[in-house]
């Protein structure tokens, strides 16, 4: 029997980027799901974080459903599962928070070096050679900045995906698995990042063109599209020999064994 952690069917031969948006509307309630997700995201303006966590938990259920149905179906958003969504989102949220706390200081140390060291070299070269060196350095600065951003993105993508699938904080930090995912999927991750960036800009412009109303749907569409892209990447990763993420082990409930039965009383009730 297939489970949410044991994908069935054949993986796509290559990334199907536009399908990550098309699949949303294959569900008859696609627009309603987008609206409800959009309202949750909008609620963060009044109650921070909670709405995003709810949508994150819902996308985890979408990911599990896509894996169990070969990408054919995903569940409707259900407010009755509010607490379930929150429970599913807590581990990837904590993993992303800790990773950000670790990576942000490193970025703050690296970016100034990337920018100020070339500027110092150009200044020290004098008025004649300085501008020439600066012209040469500017493209290098841009390339290094992009490289740093891509490196962070390529580390966070498998880390958060593993946290979503494993539903565990410690299990998410399997650096060997993360390294394997990057090695097998780096091309797809780069293309996915570019596609999401460009499509997000396009949806944002459409949302602004509709007096901001479309932004409610645009944010939700990006969340759901990212989920399908994660599903595709994971399936291709498995097809290339990557190790599946084991599910979180849930302890079996302890059922007490039947103890010795007390013998029936020999006499009547003394208090009767």
From TrEMBL:
Q: Which UniProt keywords apply?
A: Membrane, Transmembrane, Transmembrane helix
Source species, domain of life: Bacteria
- Pfam hit, one: DUF4013
Which parts pass through the membrane?
Answer: 31-58, 90-117, 129-156, 189-207
This protein is called Glycerophosphoryl diester phosphodiesterase membrane domain-containing protein
């Amino acid at each position: 029997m297939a489970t949410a952690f044991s994908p069935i069917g054949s993986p796509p031969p290559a990334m199907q980027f536009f399908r990550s948006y098309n699949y949303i509307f294959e569900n008859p309630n696609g627009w309603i799901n987008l609206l409800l997700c959009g309202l949750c995201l909008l609620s963060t303006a009044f109650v921070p974080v909670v709405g995003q966590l709810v949508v994150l938990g819902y996308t985890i259920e979408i990911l599990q459903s896509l894996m169990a149905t070969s990408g054919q179906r995903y569940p409707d958003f259900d407010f009755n599962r509010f607490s379930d969504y929150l429970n599913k989102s807590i581990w990837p949220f904590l993993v992303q928070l800790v990773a950000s706390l670790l990576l942000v200081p490193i970025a703050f140390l690296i970016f100034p070096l990337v920018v100020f060291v070339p500027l110092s070299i150009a200044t020290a070269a004098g008025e004649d050679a300085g501008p020439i060196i600066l012209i040469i350095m500017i493209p290098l600065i841009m390339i290094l900045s992009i490289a740093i951003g891509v490196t962070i993105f390529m580390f966070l993508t498998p880390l958060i995906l593993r946290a979503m699938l494993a539903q565990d904080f410690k299990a998410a930090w399997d650096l060997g698995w993360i390294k394997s995912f990057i090695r097998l999927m780096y091309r797809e991750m780069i293309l996915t990042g570019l596609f999401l960036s460009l499509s997000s800009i396009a949806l944002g412009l459409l949302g602004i063109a509709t007096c901001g109303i479309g932004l409610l749907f645009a944010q939700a569409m990006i969340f759901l599209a990212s989920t399908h892209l994660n599903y595709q990447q994971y399936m291709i990763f498995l097809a290339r020999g990557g190790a599946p993420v084991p599910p979180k082990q849930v302890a079996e409930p302890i059922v007490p064994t039947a103890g010795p039965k007390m013998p029936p009383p020999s006499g009547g009730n003394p208090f009767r």
